[in-house]
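Lecture notes, part 5. Sequence design as translation. It can be helpful to think of inverse folding as translation between two languages: the language of shapes and the language of residues. The source text, in structure tokens, appears below.
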């Protein structure tokens, strides 16, 4: 997985016809370039407006190719599911491809393919999204059919029950049969003791197996409405063109009386937890340590930007502190790094991973990782490390401006998790403002043992 930083990463979550089975210790890489954004420069310079029915529309003009990306994001995800109905958000994502009053099941996908486009969908804890990338002169075609399924989805047992079997098989193949994914699921559950972020996006098998057509329709009718959605269009198009099409196809849709997004608060953690999974299929041990952390909008959010810089210092590629010390100098690890995901509607996590080299004692490698954390807390970071990390993060923003899909992904994730367009545009300035004192204060606030979960993946010693 390539992460410029969690802010600029590709959308997380499960996708149509597949679950993104995130390994516990996915390595974070960053393109290192000497470029930097000018002071007070925007990132994407989007134009935004809202239709009378509440649909927020964001347009990013990019004339590099006669292509557009059209995305619809809904402010609902797995953490909004009714109790006992885990997996319903992801199940509905699959079912959105099953047809409307105007289109037969799968026909929208066939239309996209015939017109040379690409499409997919994704579900996370906080949002669900659908997208198409296609030639600019096909934008109206895409918008017409996406607006249609926002309001006119047709579901019957004939189409939903076979798709439920698909989702269950997806869980078996991508989670149940993958030791790293199983450990990740258990680690997430141990990280969030009370909050629904501890429930997997794909759902628990025993609950998914009981989902019904009525469950899917109720979830759809509750949350899928223009006033709970964001339309993002990026590419060779103007805001005026998008406004005309959006008013034509999305404008007539009726808004809904939306329920409150009820999220329980995570209690204060008072003891560290440890999750160990041994499996005969494991070829290489893996070690992770994660901490409950603030996001951009929850908890001690004043630390969020400093934590992004800290993660870059510690784990931003092969020149980072952890890689340099554990992989190169001590030569005890095949990989090492850190990660942080601040773009959550509620609390986030900050984590470390290390993959021991063959023949190395996992306990000794874990001790070396913990020693690095202790050194950080005791000695802080250097001015050179700080400036290098900030330059790398700013370079990531430069590259994001050139991507046709980066803008709608970044803006969509921000707008569905409590941020604004202004927050996205101000990101380079906020990173630039981070000081050494900020980074060290953030490390002390977050890297607390009682808020940690250690996860260990090992071969089965009896096999």
């Amino acid at each position: 997985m390539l992460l410029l930083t969690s802010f600029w990463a590709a959308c997380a979550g499960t996708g149509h016809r597949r679950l993104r089975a995130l390994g516990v210790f996915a390595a974070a890489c960053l393109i290192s370039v000497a470029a930097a954004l000018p002071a007070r420069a925007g990132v994407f310079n989007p134009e935004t407006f809202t239709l009378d029915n509440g649909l927020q529309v964001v347009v990013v003009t990019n004339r590099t190719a006669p292509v557009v990306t059209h995305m619809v994001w809904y402010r609902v995800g797995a953490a909004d599911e009714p109790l006992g109905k885990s997996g319903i958000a992801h199940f509905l994502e699959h079912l959105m491809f099953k047809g409307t009053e105007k289109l037969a099941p799968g026909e929208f996908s066939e239309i996209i393919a015939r017109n040379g486009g690409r499409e997919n969908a994704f579900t996370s804890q906080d949002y669900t999204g659908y997208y198409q990338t296609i030639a600019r002169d096909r934008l109206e075609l895409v918008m017409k059919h996406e607006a249609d399924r926002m309001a006119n989805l047709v579901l019957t047992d004939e189409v939903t029950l076979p798709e439920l079997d698909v989702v269950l098989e997806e869980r078996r193949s991508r989670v149940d049969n993958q030791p790293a994914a199983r450990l990740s699921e258990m680690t997430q559950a141990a990280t969030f003791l009370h909050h629904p972020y501890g429930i997997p996006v794909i759902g628990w098998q025993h609950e998914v197996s009981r989902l019904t057509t009525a469950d899917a329709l109720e979830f759809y009718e509750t949350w899928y409405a223009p006033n709970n959605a964001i339309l993002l269009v990026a590419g060779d198009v103007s805001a005026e063109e998008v406004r005309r099409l959006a008013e034509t196809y999305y404008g007539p849709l009726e808004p809904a009386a939306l329920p409150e997004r009820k999220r329980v608060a995570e209690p204060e953690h008072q003891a560290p937890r440890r999750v160990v999974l041994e499996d005969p299929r494991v070829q290489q041990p893996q070690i992770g340590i994660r901490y409950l952390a603030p996001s951009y909008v929850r908890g001690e959010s004043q630390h969020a930007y400093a934590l992004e810089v800290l993660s870059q210092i510690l784990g931003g590629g092969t020149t980072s502190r952890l890689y340099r010390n554990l992989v190169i100098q001590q030569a005890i690890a095949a990989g090492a790094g850190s990660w942080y995901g601040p773009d959550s509607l509620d609390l986030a996590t900050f984590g470390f991973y290390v993959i021991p080299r063959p023949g190395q004692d996992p306990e000794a490698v874990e001790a070396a990782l913990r020693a690095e954390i202790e050194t950080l807390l005791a000695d802080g970071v250097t001015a050179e490390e700080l400036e290098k990390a900030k330059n790398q993060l700013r370079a990531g923003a430069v590259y994001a401006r050139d991507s046709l899909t980066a803008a709608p992904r970044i803006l969509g994730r921000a707008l569905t998790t409590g941020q604004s367009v202004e927050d996205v545009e101000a990101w380079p300035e906020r990173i630039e403002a981070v000081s050494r004192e900020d980074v060290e204060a953030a490390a002390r606030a977050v890297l607390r043992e009682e808020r940690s979960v250690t996860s260990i993946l090992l071969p089965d010693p009896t096999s």
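The translated text above is only one of many valid answers, since several sequences can fold into similar shapes. Confidence is low (pLDDT under 50) at residues 1-40.
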